[in-house]
Design a protein that fits this description.
It is a single chain. By secondary structure, the chain is of the alpha/beta class. The chain has 2 domains: about 270 residues, Aldehyde Dehydrogenase, Chain A, domain 1 (3-Layer(aba) Sandwich); about 190 residues, Aldehyde Dehydrogenase, Chain A, domain 2, CATH 3.40.309. It is built from 16 helices and 23 strands. The protein has a 7-stranded mixed β-sheet with strand order 15-16-17-14-13-19-20, with helices on both faces. Strands 10-9-8-11-12-22 form a 6-stranded mixed β-sheet, with helices on both faces. Strands 1-5-4 form a 3-stranded mixed β-sheet, with helices on one face. Helix 2 crosses helix 7. The chain is globular and about 85 Å long.
């Protein structure tokens, strides 16, 4: 049985708490490794080590820090297949999806190569008589990233790249369900030239998280996970005087207008709704056709596409569409929600409840399900299912569809499929959601923009990656300077305006 520990001060170390968690193989239902869960003392020691290492790292020229990112990107590309398999082995997603997980994280590292430009301050000469003003961006110190199981490479890279490029040290607490990818990334970034201690990967559970939130050395916390946990972490971090950006759950809608290309809309819905077994915060889980004719045409196209989906382990080949969900508990919860949809009156058009994978009967596979005639009072609409279930809510007008999106408690991503530019523009301007797609199903912005939802999908005022990340991981210092020339007459005791 493989035993996984932590990455502390540039080396793998075994856990000393005596507590471990099982790392499952979602395809077989078997335990494939044990991961150590850090104690309070272990976490605090890792933070102390990071604080010591951060001083010299912060004093390193930003361009030299960027060169570490360049080398890190080269190593990620070199080890792409290995990293993708680590992702797939512990998460269960297909190998092409695993590569996509790594790739979208790599793109943020590529932006971090240009960190010196994003870290520049401002300057004004002669702001007053003989007075110059300038500002500088400086690192916060030691920061923390708490990342989820569903993107074992992408989210850790989103967190560590901007934080480290800005001159901070980082404590990375990955999901205990998928720890191996973060440990391997730590090895690679050391090889790229990152000094020991600047990145500490500490595996753990709530005890480790609470230690991060209460430790005075930690200056900022980034989190991705469920909304209840995001609210908890945000509240406790802020109470303790830390910066926090916490991203939570989602219920992403796609509006399909009568003039939309129905085949393209159906293809987009199947990929966005069922990719990675629906375990994405940007998955489209609600289709919103406008008009019954549109809904009927959409359902007619969705059914054969969904029934043709190939479900299986990542080892079954590149033509597998999606794999298992992460745990037996997740599988049971998804089945319970599908049952509730039937009981509450929704029409189950494609029923995935009886799916069984031959040879993998103990795995956590869930067949794809499609609902029609879903209403907003149903549990399958109100809750984030985080599984391969697509709900269809019929509306009779664009205004009704828009209102459905805007009154939902979540605001992570949304999209509209239409051939009408005026409708698309109106939707983009009005909808109260952080990321919007127009004829584009999963509107995750490119890495030089920024990622973040609204409403109960995000807590904090700065987003992930892009320019916002460098604002989040730095603080601004402003200097007012005056150099005297000649002899001046005494001191000045009044607070004078700079006229």
């Amino acid at each position: 049985m493989q035993e996984l520990g932590h990455w502390i001060n540039g080396a793998h170390v075994a856990g000393t708490s005596g507590r471990t968690a099982d790392v499952m193989n979602p395809a077989t239902g078997e335990v494939q490794a044990k991961v150590a869960l850090a104690s309070v003392a272990e976490m605090n020691a890792a933070i102390d080590g990071a604080a010591k290492a951060q001083v010299a790292w912060a004093a390193t020229n930003p361009q030299r820090r960027a060169r570490v990112m360049m080398k890190f990107a080269d190593l990620i590309n070199e080890h792409m297949d290995e990293l993708a398999e680590l992702v797939s082995r512990e998460h269960g997603k297909t190998l092409p999806d695993g590569r996509g997980d790594v790739q979208r994280g790599l793109e943020v590292i590529e932006v971090c190569m240009g960190a010196p430009t994003l870290l520049k301050g401002e300057y004004m000469n002669d702001g007053g008589p003989g007075i110059d003003l300038y500002s500088m961006r400086q690192p916060l110190g030691v920061v923390a990233g708490i990342t989820p199981f569903n993107f074992p490479a992408m989210i850790p890279l989103w967190k560590m790249g901007p934080a480290l490029a800005s001159g901070n040290a980082m404590i990375l607490k990955p999901s205990e369900r998928c720890p191996s990818t973060s440990l391997r990334l730590a090895e690679l970034i050391k090889e790229a030239g990152l000094p020991d201690g600047v990145l500490q990967v500490v595996n753990g559970d709530k005890e480790a998280v609470d230690t991060i939130l209460d430790n005075e050395t930690i200056q900022a916390v980034g989190f991705v996970g469920s909304t209840p946990i995001a609210q908890y972490i945000y509240g406790r971090a802020c109470t303790n005087g830390k910066r926090a950006q916490c991203f939570g759950g989602a219920k992403n809608h796609m509006i399909i207008m009568p003039d939309a290309d129905m085949d393209k809309a159906a293809d987009a819905l199947v990929g966005a709704g069922f990719g990675a077994a629906g375990e994405r915060c940007m998955a489209i889980s609600v289709a919103v056709p406008v008009g019954d004719k549109t809904a009927d045409a959409l359902i007619e196209r969705l059914v054969p596409r969904i029934e043709a989906l190939k479900v299986g382990p990542y080892t079954a080949g590149a033509d597998v569409d999606y794999g298992p969900v992460i745990t037996a508990q997740a599988k049971e919860r998804i089945g319970g929600l599908v049952n509730s949809g039937v009981e509450q009156g929704a029409k189950l058009v494609v029923d995935g409840r009886d799916f069984s994978m031959q040879g993998y009967e103990d795995g956590f596979f869930v067949g794809p399900s499609l609902f029609d005639n879903v209403t907003p009072h149903m549990d399958i609409y109100k809750e984030e299912i985080f599984g391969p279930v697509l709900s269809t809510v019929r509306t009779q007008s664009y205004e009704e569809a828009l209102d459905l999106v805007m009154t939902n408690q979540y605001g992570n991503g949304t999209s509209i499929f239409t051939a009408d530019g005026d409708t698309a523009r109106d939707f983009a301007n009005k909808v109260n959601v952080g990321m919007v797609g127009i004829n584009f199903p999963i509107p995750v912005p490119l890495s030089y923009f920024t990622f973040g939802g609204w409403k109960k999908s995000a807590f904090g005022d700065l987003n992930q990656y892009g320019p916002d990340a460098f604002r989040f991981y730095t603080k601004t210092k402003t200097v007012t300077a005056r150099w005297f020339s000649g002899i001046k007459d005494g001191g000045e005791f009044a607070f004078k305006a700079m006229d």
